Amino acid sequence: MTVSPGPSRILLLGISTVATAIALGSTYALTSDPAPESAPRAERNYGELPPDNFGGPVTSSPSAPASASPSASSTRIPSPTANPSARPTKKQRPSDSAEPPSSGDRPGSPEQEPVEADPLASPPPGNPGQQGPEPDRTGVPPKKKLRVHRGDLVIRTAGKVVDGLEVHGRVSVEAPNVTIRNTKVIVPTGSETAGISNNNDSGRGMLVRNVEVRAASAAPGVNGVVGHDFTLESSEIHHVTDQVHITGSNVTVRDNWFHDNYHFESDPYQDGGASHDDSIQIIGGGNITIAGNRFTGAYNAGVQITQSIRDVDGVTIRDNLLGGGGCTVNIAEKGRGPVDGLVIRDNRFLSDQRIDGCAIIRPSSTKVSHSGNVWDDTGRPVTLSRG
Fold first, then answer.
1. pLDDT exceeds 80 at position 170
2. Fewer CB within 10 Å, N or C, the chain?
3. How big is the chain by its Cα radius of gyration, in Å?
4. CA-to-CA distance for 303 and 279, rounded, in angstroms?
5. Is 214 within a domain?
């Protein structure tokens, strides 16, 4: 005579069956390959990524070895409120006067010392034939002998050529068509400053070629080249906050190497928040070309476009090796309406963004003409992200 199993035995058999199914499912999850990612990546929306202000970060001694990467704490801040009804209309700009940024972009004097982090490490140089110049072809030629000049250098002679100096100070160009070449500029620190500047109404037509610019030591707000109506080529700018600040029109930046930006987790120019260090920041102007450069090491953006002091239009970014940043190219409108005439083409992007896959971010109202932009490690096409 067969005896039916009791309720307890049925319950035990049910529990055993469920446990076996869970174990088999876990084993499959651990051993099966992840689903392949579709190519190219779909457009992403990063609504909270911050546009940068004019303010710039700080520096650490270039001679000191980097012991650790700065922490990747978020630098996100709320985007400024755009008031469409208050947007000024676009205007023709025959030339731009170099108005200083509005008060409040930078504080007068820091009340406390910034908390310093080490510079971001640069990836190794690329192979010949890649976008961006070979590092040994930028900066001062190796065998060039330099004469030391201590103190600031103010140039007021039109057409002046400065060649073969090591300047321990700042270079200010206040005359047209000045050339600075084969020169090293070691920027003094302790105050907000730039290594080379023509940010005035008199220094148009400046040419900077085969120059190296770096900060002497840690200090807030030390930048590389600042101004408008200039050409910067075959130069190396490093161990500063922002390598290039473009404040107006008619600028060409080509065949340069920008690396090792300084980044601070507590920056007095960002109200104690993290630094907004960029390789190039455009705060106003047009007829701007950025071509054939190598970008590594910025924390905020490789190229940051804002309209902090005036409209930006007519910008071409082409044939560069671009890396760094939360998103490498970050475009913001600042309530002034779309950035017009923006062309981004034939660039190779490193995969080192803090936000995975965010090579180019722009507002949906700004139209970007883009083609031939690929990831350097895979050759796969880059897509736009919307912010």
1. yes
2. N
3. 25
4. 6
5. yes
Do the beta carbons of residue 72 and residue 354 sit within 8 Å?
Answer: yes
Residue 172 lies in a domain: yes
Q: Find all residues with CB under 8 Å of 272, minimum gap 6, and list them.
A: 266
Number of domains composing the chain: 1
Alpha carbons 287 and 45: distance in angstroms, whole number: 29
Query: Residue 195 is part of which domain span?
Result: 115-386
- Predicted pLDDT at 220: 66
Q: Cβ(298)–Cβ(327) under 8 Å? A: no
| pLDDT confidence of residue 191 | 65
Predicted TM-score (pTM) of this structure: 0.70
In whole angstroms, give the CA distance from residue 72 to residue 192.
25
| Residue 193 located in a structural domain | yes
In a domain, 312, yes or no: yes
Provide the mean pLDDT of the chain: 74
CATH, residue 175: 2.160.20.10
Phi-psi region of 11 (alpha: psi -120 to 50; beta: other; left: phi over 0): alpha
The string of DSSP codes covering 78-91 is PPPPP-GGGPPPP-
Looking from the CA of 334 toward its CB, the CA atoms found within 13 Å total 20
* Residue 125: both structure tokens together: 């140089």
Give the H or E element holding residue 374. strand 374-375
State how far the alpha carbon of 308 is from the alpha carbons of 53, 86, 125, 167, in Å. Answer: 7, 15, 33, 31
The first and second tokens of residue 16, run together, are 């055993």
